[in-house]
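User: Study the chain.
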Amino acid sequence: MSTAGDGNSAYGRRSFQRSKSHFSDRITTDGRDGWPVAAGRYRLVVSRACPWASRAVISRRLLGLDASLSLAIADPVQDDRSWRFTLDPDGRDPVLGIRYLGEAYDRRETDYPGGVSVPAIVDVPTGKLVTNDYQRITLDFVTEWASLHREGAPDLYPERLRDEIDEVMAEVYEDVNNGVYRAGFATEQEEYEAACSDVFRRLEALNERLARRRYLVGDSITEADIRLFTTLVRFDAVYHGHFKCNRRKLTEFPVLWAYARDLFQTPGFGDTVDFDHIKRHYYRVHTGINPTGIVPLGPDLSGWLTAHHREELGGRPFGDGTPPGPVRPGEEVPAAGRP
């Protein structure tokens, strides 16, 4: 999720086009881009509001990389200078010593013309941004960071299923993950209607697919489930109203709603979700489509903790692995952000 270069007021005032990640270096086992995997060397910067960043938070926790890769959480309400660390004492990230994520971008490339986005991985010794490639970061967590995985870490991207996972993720990205943004930031009626129709056509197809299986691909959680979940968990809270994706609520898709609750109640998913951050970010930052900045009181979030009965379909959430341990101190979701 990126901060627009000309400020938050630009959201909703021009046609939406998601930019590609400008900094696409990879952190790999062999360090071929100059960034070798190493415990304690890098810091993952996220916003709990951002679905793209939330993928990285969930993957990090499921794989046990929280012991090797530290986490910085930005204020959900950024200003025109980018994501800021006002949640930390003195308004500075305690590890990087910076007030704004944009400072790490500047150390990598002065006068970089694009937006400042999360997730971002920063090299702690130099303070330079390494990558903001949200599509690649989590895949590399699974494959390149394997030596630092916890014992019992699940295989989120099994090699024998990768073609199917990639196909499902591409469809979900185009119509759902990115589709809600295309609808929400549309500036013409036809543009909005096309995007909104794509969102619900895909949701209906996913609802049908998941009626017969517990997870999107195979019989355990994969990267595909993580990517769909981060949009679904935000759907009724922000996308239904704020982005006008209001043909149906998530709670009106019986299968998808049960699937989303199943994941939410799985360790590593719901314990990373902060509804307070999510709602305050979207409704206060996107002033082009919500000029008053008023954050709605609803919806009722208590349903996320109700029984889902998805276990009746079989499957094993972590495959041959085990659930992650408790959330690390300092990374807990505050009570205000929980259902």
Remarks:
- The longest helix spans residues 189-209.
- The CA atoms of residues 303 and 339 lie 8 Å apart.
- The first strand starts at residue 2 and ends at 3.
- The radius of gyration is 19 Å.
